[in-house]
User: What shape does this take?
Amino acid sequence: MRKTRLKKGDEVVIVSGKDKDKRGTVLKVLRDQSKIVVENINMVKRHTKANPAQGVSGGIVEKEMAMHISNVALWNPMTQKADRTGLRKLEDGRKVRFFKSNKEVVDV
Assistant: This one.
């Protein structure tokens, strides 16, 4: 299992692919596959078959698909750009993420 520096609720920027330069919020992190699902990004049309037993109506549904973590970067509100992150230990022993460009702590 890989360690990721992105968490659910983070605001990210897409750095490659069809949705390049768009911003969104992380909905789900799939650690075992190194993929994430971002809100309103990587939308696909899914053709679903009706299943009345489960209450699923058929038709074409638009949904977000997972994308690889390497295609996104964390949004830095200070610099208004995408930024790389690192891990740092504080004096009290907690591990926190920080932006590499300006050394600001992401989560306190």
Summary: The two ends are 25 Å apart (CA to CA).
